[in-house]
Amino acid sequence: MIVGGLLTPLENVMTDVLTWLHGSVGLPWAWSIVALTVIVRVLLVPVAIKQIHSMQSLQVHAPEMKAIQQRYKSDRQKQSEELMKFYKENKINPYASCLPIVFQIPIFISLFFVLKDFEKEIFPKFPSSSLDWLGLVDITEPVKDGWGPVLIAVYVASQLLSTYLMSTAMQSKAQRYMVMVLPVVFLPFILRFPSGLMIYWLTTNLWTTGQGIVTRRQMPRPVAPPKRSSRTPPKEEPPASSNGDPAPVDGAPKATSGGAPRRVKRKRGGRTRK
Description:
This protein has one domain (about 1-220). Helix content is about 60%, strand content about 5%. It contains 12 helices and 4 strands. The radius of gyration is 33 Å and the shape is elongated. The N and C termini lie far apart (about 105 Å). The model is unreliable at about 230 (pLDDT under 50).
C-alpha cells in the first residue's frame, strides 16, 4: 500500500516508542498507547496554541468579516479576495484551526498499521505481556467485540464535547451542526478498528477537551477593534477662516469688526429692533 509505504518511517518510530514504554518504563501495552498519545499531544501544544489564537481572532473580527460577505455577496470572487486581504491585514490564519488534525492524521494511520500486525511482529518479543486493557478489551481486537461498545460510547461523548469547544468559533449554524454530527456518522467505519486505536482516539479527545478548557481560561483574548456606527458620520472640524480662526457655524451670530457680536432684540408680534 502506497500510504503504508510513505508512513513506514513514522510506523518504525511509533513501534520503537511503544516498545520502550513497555520494555523500559514497564507500562502495559494499552497504557503505553495512552502514554504515546500524551507524548504526541505535548509535542503538538505549540500548534494547538496557534489554533486557539486563530479561533479567538476569528470570533473577535466576526462582525467585520460578515460585513464584507454581505457587501460582496453577489460577487463571490471579489468576496474571497477581500476576505483574504482582511486576513492578511489582521494577521489571521483561517486554516490554523485544522493544523492539529492535519498533524494527527498520519500518526493515527501509522498506529493503525502498527496494531494491525502487532501480534505477529511485536508481541512475540514479549511473551509474558498482556494485551488487555482494564480487563475489558484486547488492543488488537476489533472495538465492537467484548466491552468495546463502552469505549465507543465514551468516544462519542468525548468527541462531541471536544468538537463543540472547537465549533464555537464557527459563524454558520450549518457548519456547527455538521461538525457535531460527523462523530456519529463515523461510527460504522470505526467498529472494525483495533481497540488500541480507539484508546488512542479516546485519549486524544479527552486531552483536547481539557486543553480547550484550560487554555481558554488562561490565554488572554485578542483586543476587539473599536466599533463604529455606519449611521453616525465622523465629526468634522469647522474650516478655518482667512485669519486662522474657526469659521462661524450657520445660524450662529456673526462677530462685528469690533469683535463683539451684535445683539438682536425681538419685540412681541414678530417685529425685530436692532
